[in-house]
Amino acid sequence: MSLFSLEGKVALITGSTKGIGKAIAERMAEQGAKVVISSRNQELCDEVAGEINSKGGSAIAVACNINYQEQLENLVAQTEKQLGKINILVCNAAINPYFGPSQEIPDSAFDKVMHANIGSVHRLCQLAIPSMAESGGGSVIIVSSIGGLKGSDALGAYAISKAADMQIARNLAVEWGPKNIRVNCIAPGLVRTEFARALWENPKIYEATVSKYPLRRIGEPDEIAGAAVLLASDAGSFTTGQTIVIDGGGTIAG
Q1: Of 180, 212, 89, which Cα lies nearest the Cα of 143?
Q2: Cα-Cα-Cα-Cα dihedral of 17, 143, 231, 241, to 10°?
Q3: Which CATH code of 3.40.50.720, 1.50.10.20, 3.40.1440.60, 3.40.50.410 fits the domain covering 10-253?
């Protein structure tokens, strides 16, 4: 069997109707995982799950707004009810409602970012990991950002939340390692997604960014998905508590 096979595994992926989350879901399904497509919009979830099923994959759709505890509980409960125990949890959904200096961010926006980007990861892990451990182990993948590794004059709260994701991965890797649970982060650089459109669509920001990237271009969602498959599969079975940076070399050269 391939080192990258996810045959028979159940993978729950938040924020998986577009961008990086969708690419991860599609690639995990290709490797044999039964995937759960989730975002706030049930129609979009159904659409993406339908696409995967039409290509011979296996997917179900469960809408969930990560800001609400009861919806997170329902997401995990529905996954277990329809597909069985979760083996792979991908915490990808995140928000960034404010772009600008930290001094000017409204309290409500700051609190919203912390609640969604840190709180939902913490809560989902609390909900999913215990039964994952009971069934012999599993893999948690948190999609962070290189924003969590560098200072920023415009992404303050978001960058703080993404640095916190890396620490959650380290803490949980230590806590759950003895139960064969691996917890890792992926930290993408600028990737061509709707979420980052304001950055890559602006010619000034785009040029300033890619000029510092050794590969001289931004990333594509699929280029992040491969690392997620690695971390979810036997290929990543001795990797835990790590942050894998995928940024075209931006952090080593910028």
Answers
A1: 89
A2: -160
A3: 3.40.50.720
254 pLDDT tier (thresholds 50, 70, 90): low
Q: Is there a catalytic annotation at residue 98? A: no
Q: Which ranges in the chain belong to alpha helices (H)? A: 19-30, 42-54, 69-83, 107-113, 120-134, 156-176, 197-200, 203-210, 221-232, 250-253
- What's the pLDDT score for residue 203? 86
Enumerate the domain spans of the chain. Answer: 10-253
Q: Which residues of 220-243 are buried (b: 16+ CB within 10 A; e: fewer)?
A: ebebbbebbbbbbbeebeeebbbb
Is residue 136 packed enough to be buried (19+ CB in 10 Å), middle (13-18) or exposed (0-12)?
exposed
Q: Which of 68, 158, 206, 213 is catalytic?
A: 158
Q: Give the tens place of pLDDT for each residue, 22-53.
A: 999 999 999 999 999 999 999 999 999 999 99
CA distance linking residue 149 with residue 182, whole number of Å = 21
pLDDT in tens, 179-212: 999 999 999 999 998 877 877 888 888 888 899 9
CA distance 217 to 98: 25
Q: Enter the pTM of the model.
A: 0.96
